[in-house]
Design a protein that fits this description.
Largest sheet: 3 strands, antiparallel
Radius of gyration: 14 Å
Strand content: 35-45%
Shape: globular
Strand order of the largest sheet: 1-5-6
Number of helices: 2
Number of strands: 6
Distance between the termini: 26 Å
């Protein structure tokens, strides 16, 4: 038998440049460090997400997901897209 997840979640994909969108979504749980200059001279943003257990580092393409209890965590793009499809 085959099964599909029934839950609806909220998530935002990190693209390396959407700090304000991530901050608006995850609030105090999203933290940014800035390092390494881009070719255009701007600083790259490094995203870290704090949850109850640890601080996770995100890479470009990862999703920041709001859990059922209001916590936040990182999901790799491949894993996220295998489990969820966008709701309309």
């Amino acid at each position: 038998m085959k099964y599909r997840r029934k839950e609806i979640i909220e998530a935002v994909q990190w693209n390396g440049k959407n700090q304000s969108e991530i901050k608006a979504f995850a609030g105090q749980f999203a933290m940014f460090d800035y390092a390494d200059m881009d070719k255009d001279g701007s600083l790259d943003a490094l995203l870290k997400v704090k949850n109850t257990e640890k601080i996770e580092n995100a890479t470009t393409g990862d999703y920041v997901v709001r859990g059922k209890k209001g916590d936040f965590f990182i999901m790799k793009q491949k894993d996220f897209e295998e489990l969820y499809e966008e709701c309309k």
